[in-house]
Target: NADH:flavin oxidoreductase/NADH oxidase N-terminal domain-containing protein
Amino acid sequence: MQDYRAQLATNPQELEEILGPISDAGVDIFDASTRYFDIPAFEGSTLNLAGWAKKVTGKPTMTVGGIGLNKGFGGSMDKRTDSDSVNNLDLLLSRFEAGEFDLIGVGRSLLNDPAWIRKARAGEPFDVFDPKNLRRLT
Model:
């Protein structure tokens, strides 16, 4: 079982203490995968983990987590309902265009439906999440 509340850093200063030496050692991009991209990393700010990683290192970042999935989506491997597949792309793109992060990673939504990118571009509804689709790779 995963603990979705676990954090390596509880504030921006701690994050900088962790990422600073890694950045100084030559890492040139950070993949900041979280459960949901639109959850703030720290109290008092709307920035997500990718936004904070970019802010404290000055390096490009990728946000990952919950793109195309409702917050009701959890670790359950039960078939989900229509409400579990959502179009949260407007929020994602507004944050991307504001420069909060530089790249976007799509995981479960794309594994669930290989046509997800085409549907997103066309403004078509996304498939209902079915965890069986994740097992195709195992």
